[in-house]
């Protein structure tokens, strides 16, 4: 697993609940993601380029419901 460069963060839209996705940056520029309600269940790690592609898709509306 890549070295961790940052602390876990969650969206300000989470309304102070534990039912949210958290993320943190890794030392190599990637991102780790976990379920804040079950933080010990593991993480998913994305490379910097995977995360940038995801964010670009979000901004472009690809994941709108």
Tally of domains: 1
Rg = 12 Å
Most strands sheet: 4 strands, antiparallel
Number of strands: 4
- Main sheet: which strands, in order across? 1-2-3-4
Count, helices: 1
Apparent shape: globular
Task: Walk me through this protein's architecture.
By secondary structure, this protein is of the alpha+beta class. It has one domain (9-54). It is built from 1 helix and 4 strands, in the order ββββα. It has one helix at residues 48-59; strands at 9-10, 21-25, 31-35, 44-46. It has a 4-stranded antiparallel beta sheet with strand order 1-2-3-4. A hairpin with a 5-residue loop joins strand 2 (21-25) and strand 3 (31-35). The protein is globular and about 30 Å long. The protein starts with 8 loop residues before the first strand and ends in a 6-residue tail after the last helix. 3% of the residues are buried. The model has no long low-confidence stretch (mean pLDDT 86).
Topology of helices and strands:
Blueprint: E1 9-10, E2 21-25, E3 31-35, E4 44-46, H1 48-59
Antiparallel strand pairs: 1-2, 2-3, 3-4
């Amino acid at each position: 697993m890549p070295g961790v460069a940052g602390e876990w963060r969650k969206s300000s839209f989470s309304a102070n609940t534990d039912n949210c996705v958290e993320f943190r940056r890794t030392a190599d520029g990637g991102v780790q993601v976990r379920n804040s309600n079950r933080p010990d269940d593991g993480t998913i790690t994305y490379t910097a380029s995977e995360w940038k592609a995801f964010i670009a898709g979000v901004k472009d509306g690809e994941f709108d419901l």
